[in-house]
């Protein structure tokens, strides 16, 4: 059988012409075998009806097999010619014929180099899309984090507003000023505490020396 893949014909027909010819060949062979078995059966009946016939069924089977071999050899020769004709004249698409789905290639022809360049550009665009998707995901995560920080800051501001209202209710004046004075007083207390601790250490050291 033909070794040409005939890919364009397979695209058009939906099957390879070689596959079609193989199925035809198998169908012819099956029909030939069935026909020979049928002929053999008819001959056996005829021989049984002939008085004094000395041809036995095994002998008839040998004759049938020889005739079948003869038929197969001639059939293979004929089929080879038929296959050649069908593949060239019936199941063959001429080189100058373009399928409708491939006409776009005639309108926009591309060389192998141009096609490869398009493939490379497509891969670059796909990589950029993946990078942009990753960047967008990172921005979304950062936005969610900022929302959480904003919510905490709003809670802190509400807390300060509540303290300021409490200070006004108790006549403490401006909360910011009170907070600043409280910070200064705390710092002074820390300095005094530090001074007292240093003096205490000095006194303990003197007691030990005495």
UniProtKB/TrEMBL annotation:
InterPro entries: Centromere_Mis12. It comes from Copsychus sechellarum. Its main location: nucleus. Keywords: Cell cycle, Cell division, Centromere, Chromosome, Coiled coil, Kinetochore, Mitosis. The keyword Ribosomal protein does not apply. It comes from the Eukaryota. This is Protein MIS12 homolog. Belongs to the mis12 family. It is found in: Chromosome, Centromere, Kinetochore. One of its GO terms (biological process) is cell division. Residues 108-156 form a coiled coil. One of its GO terms (cellular component) is nucleus.
